[in-house]
Amino acid sequence: MRCRKFSIGLTCLILTVLVTGAWAAPKYKVLHTFTGGSDGGSPYAQLIFDKAGNLYGMTYLGGEAGCFAGLGCGTVFELTPGSGGWTENVLYAFTGGADGGNPIYGGLTFDAAGNLYGTTNFGGIFGGACDPYGCGTIFKVAPGSQGWTESVLYSFTGTSGQQPTSAVAFKNEGHLYATTPDGGKHTLGTIVELVNGSGMWAEKTLQSFTGGGDGASPFAGLVADAASNFYGTTTYGGSGGYNGGTVFELTAAGKVIPIYSFKCGANKCNRKDAGNPWSGLVFDQHGNLYGATNSGGTHPKCGAVYKLAPSKGGKWKESVIYSLKGGPGDGATPFSLLVFDKAGNLYGTASTGGINNEGVVFKLAHGVGGWWKETVLHKFTGGSDGGRPQAGLSIDAAGNLYGIATEGGEGDCPAGCGVVFEITP
To answer: Burial level of 275, CB count in 10 A (0-12/13-18/19+)?
Structure first.
């Protein structure tokens, strides 16, 4: 079975920073360069850590040699640190058939037993709306004495959604959730819940987005609060006619409530607002939500970082805390989830801008009076350091940052097969 190539048209990574005063330049290091062969290629998904400090991720291409005209249908991989560097181990290579194929933005999620969960963009059920590539899957990869084994928990049907791009979110061990940007009653995406009963997973479609005030096309996954309510984003739709997307709450009872509609979108744009989020949300310690948008801000084609603060009466107040500028000095068009460090600084990636328009890694530091100051930590070159980062960053206990660049490096992928990198602030 051949899998369809998914491309946003992006490319690579390296760091040029001036050191002034007592501030020391961050150190950038490539941990692994993908070849596009059996080790995988073109990673889009965010990395995660296990308790031992190993990294886990997915690639969109590579793996099974005969899949997608020899480019492969993607892998699940582990990177293990050692005295001689990091070693990659492919845990599973997708075939593009019933097992799924081409995992993309979502990333992996651990359960308490150490099993990994994720979604594939293609494969699974074929026929009807799912031809010719399949509608995608929710899968589990479990460790065992003979290695890791993959099992499909659910194959999307088109009616329940198709082409999932989100990570899996857990309410508890028996309830998991995912979003799809396509399919459903209105073909504008869905939220699905899987409930485990005696080892069998039953699916329920909680929401089929209409493209109105509830939004359309949720590409990102969900984040939970302490009360088991989930929050997510849609890339398009929303109220006011902007088509800039929404932020919504999925209550513990399974009801979707839009809490904000962006005012910069495909139809019209208010430059004081953000618009068209491809990435999900992250909470700070005070219960505020933060995210990045692909467009909007002072420079609407470059994107923005925003904050949503809860207020009286269940309302949320939105503010743009940084507008990306693009060009050689800044990033643009972020797709990534943001991450906090222990000091409350935010980190993310932008897929374009910087050197050769190959993207950057940036930091936002919270200053006096609510102002946020941006520092570019790395500008990708598209060469051996990689390029066009589209995933968020992961941070270890020491504050070191880990991420992937989708392009650059080496290999037979369309623009280089990408790298895994570390930045020591």
So the answer is: buried
